[in-house]
Amino acid sequence: MNQEMKIIKEVAQVADRGDFYTRAKTLGEIASRAFGERHRSQMTGLENIANSTLKVTDVLDFIKKQFAKSKHNEGWRKEDFGIELKKYIEQSLRKRREEICHVLENVEEESVDRQRIYLRLIREFVRQLVIHYEYQTSGGESDGSSANGASPENLLVE
Amino acid sequence: MAVVPTEQVQKICLLSDGELYENAVDFVKTHYSPKKVSKAQLNGLQNAVGAGEWHEIFNYINNRLDRDTTPEDLKSFYGALKDSLNSLHSKVQEVQFVVRPEEMTRTQGKQLNQEIERYAYLLAKEYIQHVIAEYNYQRTLSDAGDE
């Protein structure tokens, strides 16, 4: 199995463990209360940036920017949505990246592989968050697709 | 602007996610003065970055530093930013974006300096984007504390 396939497998396994699912669900539900149907573009924007960027910090800067644009107790500031999402990416997902690097053994410090693992974790987390947002916003009816049309198969596509 | 080779793009991405981001967050911690460094100031800086040239950013900063009417807090912010950007300029050769040969003609020297400025601009753009995002984020957090 080549390195890329190993990374995909490890990310998929990590995404099934611990608080990954529950945090995505909690934040997806907050996003639903914060943005509702009307501000769906916020979720599409988050998903687009996560899926297209080569840098983790583009996602973090996007969150900070949207947070700073939001009014008190609205949008990204509602129930600390932006703060909590940023914290989860910077702390929990970083820790999970380290776990994966430990399992894969030959991932060097400050390498492209290390960055790729982190980005894949973020993409998977955002994908799950957006699915929960969709589910909650549609009143419990969900077809499993996200605001951006992402699907579980997308995890396998660079 | 010319296309940047893939290997160089990877180097920029790694630097941006590592050292540049950490330094930008530290920079904001040290030079946080929301009343002096207004949103309008940061928008002006963002526009200077948008011009796409290293010297445009420097002209903008120097212009702020040279004005008699610029408050001291703001001068300190721009002075420190200028120092940070100068160290990014040195970094271009340090991390081998560009390798300086021992001997070269005048034309080659000129081309090399243009290359250095191009990479220095790309690093500066990343750094300043991180600084602006962090600054506005911290401003909103402190505003929330006041509300």
Describe this structure in words.
The complex is a heterodimer of chains A (158) and B (147). By secondary structure, chain A is an all-alpha fold. Chain A has 6 helices and no strands. The C terminus of chain A is likely disordered. In chain B, α2 packs antiparallel against α3. The longest helix of chain B has 41 residues. The mean pLDDT of chain B is 90. At the A-B interface, α4 of A face α1 and α5 of B.
List strands and helices in order, with pairings.
The complex is a heterodimer of chains A (158) and B (147).
Chain A: H1 3-15, H2 20-35, H3 40-52, H4 56-69, H5 81-104, H6 112-137
Chain B: H1 6-30, H2 39-50, H3 54-66, H4 72-94, H5 106-146
Helix pairs in contact in B: 1-5, 2-3, 2-5, 3-4, 4-5
Morphology call of chain B? globular
Spatial separation of the terminal alpha carbons of chain A: 17 Å
Radius of gyration of chain A in whole Å, from Cα?
A: 15 Å
Proportion of beta-strand residues of chain A: under 5%
From the N-terminal CA to the C-terminal CA of chain B, the straight-line distance is 45 Å
Q: Supply the helix-strand structural class of chain B.
A: mainly alpha
Helix amount of chain B, in percent? over 70%
Q: Helix segment count of chain A?
A: 6
Count the E strands of chain A.
0
- Tell me the quaternary state: heterodimer
Quick rundown:
The complex is a heterodimer of chains A (158) and B (147). Chain A is mainly alpha-helical. Chain A is 67% helix and 0% strand.
Highlighted features:
heterodimer, A: mainly alpha, 6 helices, 67% helix, disordered C terminus, B: 147 residues, mainly alpha, globular
